[in-house]
Amino acid sequence: MTSLGSTRTRAFLRLLTSIGTSKTQDTLKLLPFVVMAVVALIDFGSGPTSGLLPLLALGPAFASVACGLARTTVVGVVALVLCFALGAYNDILWMPRTDITLVAILGVTVASVLASAGRLRHEHQLADVRSVAEAAQRVLLRPVPRRAGPGIGVAVSYTSATAEARIGGDLYEVVTTPHGVRIIVGDVQGKGLEAVETAAVVLGAFREAAHDERTLQGVVARLENALTRELSGEQFVTAVLAEISGGSTITVINCGHPAPMVLDAEGGIWFAEPPDEALPLGMSALKASEPQPHHIPFEPGDQVLFYTDGVVEARDAAGEFYPLLERAHLLEGDDPQGSLDALRADLLSHVGRPLGDDAAMLLLRHRAARQNSTAA
């Protein structure tokens, strides 16, 4: 029921957003007629001394912002008709001032029609780019399973810092393998298409290695080999890899990534700092030893939040970092995805503007304690 309610809430918010956008478009389409009506009424009441006829050119100029070719043309014709009518009413129809105004309105109308055509072409191109981005998102950041084994819930959140983009340099994946459930959350150095390409390399290598390699160290070695062929210069990828293979712990290898936040069943909150943090992926030439795994307690009722530095390094208008530890209580809801959505909304509210870096979060929740108590 909670999951259904969360889904309905997100759908309702999307509906409100679409309604707000639709109302804005309708207002912009009516604005040219409103402006011309106001100018005509003022000029009609004040007489030929007002000199407001040139303002009729605002009608076709505003129409180019939101109207199509036909409506923009109609607005321009209406502006010309009003100029003729008001000029005749005020007995200034063939005076130089009126003639210049007519020529100006005609010129603005032609320019507005051309601008409207360019805007529509750009909107169509942007729609094509969005469709390609959505297809790339489905390939790179596939929907993760809502469960990662008996009684373990999974939730993800991704916010790209690139305008009009759905994907960026952050990455995550959850794969069920013969060796257990394996997870990766990472952050590619840099932004843009180059970061997306590197993220694709990491995810492709991880999905293959997670099934083939018996240990997490083997998975890390496969990722290093894949990145060695792709990366150049000083590029690197920070990542945390985890494995759930039963029992009451999660095996983790941290490759220069922010430490996961653990919320235990007793209310304790702490960051699982690795005793031996490995260097980021792609820097194998500098490594003196192999990365060593460590274990995070994962008892019934516990939660583990994996995240990228775009979360903890997000700043508000005063320059204050996002206080993730203080906001951990937002993850106490019944539905993991609903709780993570609440944390994401609080993050965006804290920043108050588009994020400066991509922000990805993946939440694991051990539900066995709740299920057992419900059954009892």
UniProtKB/TrEMBL annotation:
SMART domains: PP2C_SIG. Keywords: Hydrolase, Membrane, Transmembrane, Transmembrane helix. Its EC number is 3.1.3.16. Coiled coil: none annotated. One of its GO terms (molecular function) is protein serine/threonine phosphatase activity. The chain crosses the membrane at residues 30-49, 61-88, 100-120. Residues 152-366 form the PPM-type phosphatase domain. Pfam families: SpoIIE. It comes from the Bacteria. InterPro entries: Bact_Sigma-Reg (IPR052016), PPM-type-like_dom_sf (IPR036457), PPM-type_phosphatase-like_dom (IPR001932). Gene3D superfamilies: PPM-type phosphatase domain. It is an enzyme of class 3 (hydrolase). PANTHER family: STAGE II SPORULATION PROTEIN E, STAGE II SPORULATION PROTEIN E-RELATED. This is PP2C family protein-serine/threonine phosphatase.
